[in-house]
Design brief:
The protein is mostly helical. Helix content is 67%, strand content 3%. It has 39 helices and 4 strands.
Amino acid sequence: MIALIVAHFALAACAGPLVHRLGRRAFVVLALPPAAATVWAFTRWDTVASSGADTWSWQWIPDYGVALDLRLDALAELMVLLAAGVGALVLLYCASYFTDDTPQLGRFAGNLLAFAGAMLALVLADDLITLYVFWELTTVFSYLLIGHGSEHRHSRRSALQALVVTTFGGLAMLVGFLILGQAAGTYRISAIVADPPETTLAVSVALVLVLCGALSKSAIWPFSMWLPNAMAAPTPVSAYLHAAAMVKAGVYLVARLAPAFADVPVWKPVVLVLGGATMLLGGWRALRLNDLKLVLAYGTVSQLGFLTLLAGAGNRNAALAAAAMILGHALFKAPLFLVTGIVDHAAGTRDLRKLSGVGRSLPYVAGVAALAAASMAALPPLLGFAAKEAAFEALLHGSAADRWALAVVVAGSALTTAYSLRFVWGAFARKPGVPDTPVHRVGWAFLAPPALLAVLGLVLGPGVGWTDRLLGAYADTFPADGKPYHLALWHGFGLALLLSALAWAAGTVLFLGRARVTRLSRRIAWPTADSVFGHLLLGQERLALQVTGFIQRGSLSVYLATTLLVMLAGQLAVLVIDTPWDGAVRPRLWDNPLQGAVAALTCAAALLCLTVRRRMKAVVLAGLTGYGAALLFVVQGAPDLALTQFCVETVSMIVFVLVLRRMPVHFQETVSTWRRAARIPMALAAAATIGVGMWVAAAARTAEPAGAAMVREVADHGLKDVVATILVDLRAWDTMGESAVLAAAAIGVTSLIYLHRRSEGTMVQEELRGRTAWSLSAQHSSRLPQGDEAAPERSWLAAGATLAPEHRSIVFEVVARLLFHPILVLSVYLLFCAESLPGGGFVAGLVAGLALITRYLAGGRFELAEAAPLQPGLFTGLGLFISTGVGLLGLADGTVLHAFTYYGQLPVFGKYHLGTPVLFDFGVYLLVLGVVLDIVRALGAKIDRQIERAAGVLTPEGGPEAGGGPR
């Protein structure tokens, strides 16, 4: 099972190259995974038809009881055959529907196959969380498929609408799953169905939430508006997602949970009422539309309401009818959509008012459509007739609610007959006053997929008994009530047959009076759900703008004050009500007086930040608070933390200074006297609240501290540095996640500086024809020697010639040149000594970054380009790749991030050992170095270039150009 799912996603990832190489013929290759899944499902028919099941399990999150569980039983077998079988035929159909030069065909092919894989996994999932993951994957891929023609506004809007509606339902369903799993004590679906939890308020709420997800996925009213608009997708998508796959997911979930929860009081009112209403509203709307796809779309909405009603009815015979109708619906609705695509392809239109005489030009296409439409109208001897007869019998002998539902179903069946006739007439009949529509020839490969599905519907009508054992295995999961019904084409004359005849007759009358029905339908039409959705979305946007305008006033101090006040109110309320300090150990002010002195100076610097008006003073004072925290780490005996804090604070201050070059000297915000006076008390109150909270949290500890155990664990491995070992071994997962977040944040922030592209120009000195940004504001001194008057000077920096003489600091250049390589060596030392001494990849990367910053501060952007000619993204990406690769290497021993150590001996150096934590730390080193370099290039070199461009000292195209003044 898992191999088939992986095969779908693996081949989907290769769809782009396949389409590029094979063109539209690549769809034949892409059809192999769903075809293989279909063959595999047929091989398991006897097992599941005998009430057996195939299972596969992998513990995903063992501590929380979350596992990747797959299970193939009778219901899953039916859905696999539909999702995989119809999916394979649709992919083959795509090979004829598209052309080799169709835009973005590779992306479309990959998304379609990946959707098939997600749908296959969804119906096989036996765990609520697993089902939800693949449920949302189908939502994402359907969004991409519906919005495939993204150049059209309607496609983008339809895709967004489908995403919003189904995601909203999916989130509600997730909450329901969590409540249901907690109530049942397991997330295993088969276990929940076999032993459902006791009906409580929580379980009832959970079921309503789950039904919200199921109904939104299957386009049940009031969530039905997204499916007709999804017809903006290419026809193969409509045939697959909206006939056999995605929209069936909600019906499948209702059918899956019905054996356990159909008797819960909230279940039947929701399912029966909304299902019946959807059947009537969708069918009635289909009678007045002129686009063939829209006629089928609203017909699909109607049929989904019917399927939901049957699946949720909660008795054995209705469940059998629901399973038969699910099969029948796929076998008639998918070929009808595919035939619509053929007609559109051959005639160039889907408007039934413009189509005329197509049936005579394309007789085989018309025959396939007539066969499928007859099954949809439940005419004998097709599968649709046998399934609807079963539905009528089940509802006829059910409860009073079932008999009310039967009346709705009969009315809906009359509408089904009417729009089935409307479709066939509109697509293929010759209409008075309308000239015959010219069409081109249709190849056999184009017609074969819909023809095969339609013929199956014909064969399985008389042969419906072949499916009785499989579908009955699912139906038998419901309690037996009375004589069990068995599928057969003919059950003799009876009330069910009379009701079918009544539906056919009423539907025929509606079709014959189509002009009056259309006028009446338009006269009494309510506002469409689509327009309601549009107004709701517009209202939400306006409300968001008003709220944003009220709250977001552009004042950072107001934002911070609001945050602090909310935090203060919440924390003080908890502290006052709970009084958690009762019995707490009295806090010590300090371990030695030096801590108190450093803390007092740090707090003083922080408070002074609130009073200054110049930005540079605020940066310096904020930096002092960081250095004060680092001194506290030193006094406390935490050299690792102190070293990291010193490096981070230094880099942060340099970045602030670089940014301040493009900002006013003074703060521009006008602050009233009372607001300025309230800053210090508010800051003191926030600090005191946080301090008390930290004391209370520390005093509430009941377990033994983990420090001693950490020290012993590190010592057992022959190491000494506990902090570094925690970061790269014991809690390497956290480090990997934080590294990824750091890289993403740095790339995102610096990308705001690079408006168009991250690599602009060549950063060569020849592009400069004047002074650099470092010397543009300097005043030239006529007293400086010019030309031959000056003695020859040694150039300490590679780009020293780009600096104006009055701007250069020879002492700084010499120091930068002499210290650059020792600092890099120090960074490598800190990287490799981390097992026993203070250091590590993070602080080593910061130190290496400081070496590059020193070169930049001494010589400008050209000096930085000479010192680091490679792109920062190379370091960042390589670091992530190495760290991730080392983590995955641990799978060789059964767990991610498992540490390996190699011991060896070198001739000169003697014994040595190399551990994977060091390699992991090396990846962190490269990543941090890349992040620092990226920030310096963006906030330093990039801003320098902008200043130079504004001053007109760059060549017009950034290339070499002779001339210019002194540099």
